[in-house]
Write a structure and sequence with these properties.
Order of helices and strands: HHHHHHHH
Protein name: DUF4386 domain-containing protein
Shape: elongated
Number of strands: 0
Organism: Nocardioides silvaticus
Oligomer: single chain
Keywords: Membrane, Transmembrane, Transmembrane helix
Length: 229
Amino acid sequence: MNYPEDTTTMTFFHAHGWRLVLAASGVALLAGAPMHPSSDSEDPLRKELAVMTADSAWVPGHSLIVLSTVLLATGLWMAHRRRVWPTSVQRTLGFAAVAVSAYVVETVAHLAAVIDSDRLAAGDAAPVAFGHIGLATVLYPVTGWALVFLALAFGRVWRGWRRVVAVVGAVAGLLHAFSVPLTVLFPDTEFTPVFAGAAMSIAVFTLGIAVAGAPRPVRSAPRTVERIA
């Protein structure tokens, strides 16, 4: 017995599943990022972490961020495996997928920092919380630049309004890349807007990729064969 509707649905998901996964990633980040607790930037890093990890919004907000990052990595890998992009984009897409996959580790450690909340407040050793800072110092720049390169690669093959999505992606990547290094270098400066801008622009970029999709391959004109009478 044939089930044409089921077959059509499966074909759609096979062809566009990566776009649905990226859309879900963007929605999850839009929901989770605004939940991030705030703290006084003039406080020492330990006190900032103690205040933020003690906030009831830390776990639900960061759980959504972890989910979003996992979905982003999955969507990029799906697109790479499906080879939906031209060869000029494939290598950059693969690099971005690897970078975001590594960044998943940081988001999990970021969430797990809540374990050290009491230790942070008491002045005791907090290996998970400070371990996540170490990971962030490396992985934020790597992931940010990967997104910049990916956005530039998309911009070279997209046309029209889709190039705006590429611009958003480049800005998102730069904000993400510099957010943690700037915080480490200038601990008394308020960089919350940079983190917030990076998160929200990454969410918009991710949704934009899902909506814009890959460019359709250019079909060559059919060749005509002259017949000799």
